[in-house]
Fold these 2 entries.
Entry 1:
Amino acid sequence: MTEILDGKLISQQIQEELFLEIDRIKEQGGKIPHLAAILVGNDGASETYVAAKVKACEKVGFKSTLLRLPETTTEQELLAKVNKLNTNPEIDGYIVQLPLPKHINENKIIEAIAPQKDVDGFHPQNVGRMALNLPTYLPATPYGIIQLLERYAIDTTGKHCVVIGRSHIVGSPMSILMARNAFPGNCTVTLCHSRTANLKEFTQKADILIVALGKPEFITADMVKEGVVIIDVGITRIPSATTKSGFKLAGDVHYDSVAPKASFITPVPGGVGPMTIASLLVNTLKASRKEIYK
Ligand code: NAP
């Protein structure tokens, strides 16, 4: 029997827990967590993602501030905004929505974010702390996957976890988290990417397959074994004749053929996506409580 890993449901549960927590904080006269987001330019997908994050903040009772900057913003101007947020005691954590316009060096901006306020977990200090298994802000998408595995009590110890994709925001941190001495974790991890030879030989041996390459329906039934746990991170807009908008969202896994072989699987949409937002909120609460950096 295949069980759906329902990210939408778990994300709602987490948000309800946060809502109750905010009620408690209000009653006690404590500080309401405050998340800020910087959005540079008018990229459609980025606008949608930021709007969803701001809306989620409002829903659970957090404060949120959206700083919109024009496409023409210089690196210096953006650095100045980042420094302002670093020193603003009102703001607990913030994100700089990626990608940034080509003329801005993303690494330079990420390194300028105060690690204590880096709720996206992208600053090298926080990445290093993650690698060392020290308290840190885990990047939102991998953290969301970890919480999903945890809440469904998926047995990960001693399993062979194959991760496809080595990006800094998903694949690479995911491989670190699944290998660490923790639950979920304690897997034997294989990290695959575009230069991996004979990818299918690895995917067929996976007990847990985490797919983050951005190629719609890339993983097919012949590439997986019976009973595999499938985490599909991919989100790609593909044309559709059956939807009003003319497109639909596709994951990296060919769901209809793979799901019958899987023990657990995340749908797209409604799997990893909603968990990403919930994780950002959890990180913001941690920032406001100074749980990571005391
Ligand atoms: P990315 O930066 O483009 O990285 C893609 C990775 O896949 C790279 O490491 C690349 O290898 C590897 N790859 C590409 N083609 C491959 C192939 N044929 N075989 C094996 N590996 C291959 O992508 P990303 O930012 O990690 O995102 C991946 C997907 O997840 C996208 O669809 C994105 O929209 C989605 N996403 C979803 C969420 C969410 O909240 N659900 C969050 C973030 C991203 P090389 O390193 O060798 O190039």
Entry 2:
Amino acid sequence: MSKNIALITGVTGQDGSYLSEFLMAKGYEVHGIIRRSSVDFRERIAHLEGEPNFHLHYADLSDSMSLVRLVGKVQPTEIYNLAAQSHVQVSFDSPEYTADVDAVGVLRILEAVRANHLEKICKVYQASTSELYGKVEEVPQNENTPFHPYSPYAVAKLYGFWIVKEYREAYNMFCCSGILFNHESERRGETFVTRKITLAAACIAHGKQDCLYLGNLDSLRDWGYAKDYVECMWLILQQDKPEDFVIATGIQHSVREFTILAFKYAGITLEFKGKGLNEVGVCIAGPSELIGKELVKVSEDFYRPTDVVNLWGDPTKAKEKLGWNPMTTSFEKLVEIMVKHDMAKIAADNAAANIRKTNLAEYLEKGIVK
Ligand code: NAP
Ligand code: G4F
């Protein structure tokens, strides 16, 4: 039997790291694309480096030739195109770059497959998004819900979705989009709202931060666990025929609900008072020094020019055709995992800082450091 060879773009990201682990456990040879950066900081995949079936290559989604060369060299049987400028708010500040990577980047991947005559051999998974539904036209959203993108990020991703569909029909390629709703984890980037909240809850509980500033607390999301979602990416490529799938839990919560639960797992009970920019989250139970303090405030800085506020996915097709269970990790469990991880991280950071302080004091006392 020929070997399964996966090429993952975005391997250093949240999903890329979980997908690498998942595919390696299935016996795949995994190749990942990395970008040159002034600090080589590959925290999420550091544990995989050095594994015989894990290989990293420099390339960039904005550089066609690097992709053509790499696809030719690796001869993948599956490509998972996860690379993207993935932050919606940042897409308002860097719209052209976002379009180059998130829209034209998808085309570059498809063309790299064609340029190497791998259309019949190589399947392509495209990381599409619930942001396509944007200013939503119905709830919950399924594969037939009309798209209404509502940010430069979503508009770029819409191009990615349609070009994948076009290449599937025009060139008979096995390429599909997973329309994934928000999925989070202890590896989530620190500026996405869930991780920003779990880290702040941990810092506040450890006395390292006074207050958390957020934007729209009413925004509703269908949040799942990233580790569960990467299985779907693989399942989508194992079907007999290429199709697009909505991947979601089918359950919706607000940013405010996520915040209350995260602080609860950090040992702090919050009560929200006031409205709009004047809304605050006050500590009503927990460590005595925090009682009565306003620990969460709203800042206009985190409002978006246009915000997507009602995402709620219908995973029926994925359940029926992929046999996928969207409830493997519940919302409550997800928040608990993230807060536990961040409480341990802040405690370890504190301990390391204390050791550094003690060492420095000792050195100063002995006259080693002046
Ligand atoms: P992430 O943590 O932000 O990771 C993004 C990855 O893309 C990183 O590895 C990044 O590399 C890479 N990348 C960015 N620009 C690149 C470029 N020009 N060339 C090559 N690589 C580049 O994102 P994620 O949460 O894992 O999401 C994975 C994909 O799913 C993204 O396409 C995202 O838009 C999409 N998606 C995510 C969600 C979600 O809730 N997480 C939902 C729907 C869709 P560096 O490490 O070098 O920056
Ligand atoms: O966590 P977020 O930044 O994620 P968003 O915009 O939903 O995008 C994520 O999920 C998409 C799938 O739907 C992916 F395609 C995309 O790549 C990314 O992974 O924001 C969630 C909500 C928004 O409505 C935002 O306005 O939370 C609201 N929010 C409120 N305060 C905040 C904040 N978002 C952030 N990042 N920071 C805040 O302080």
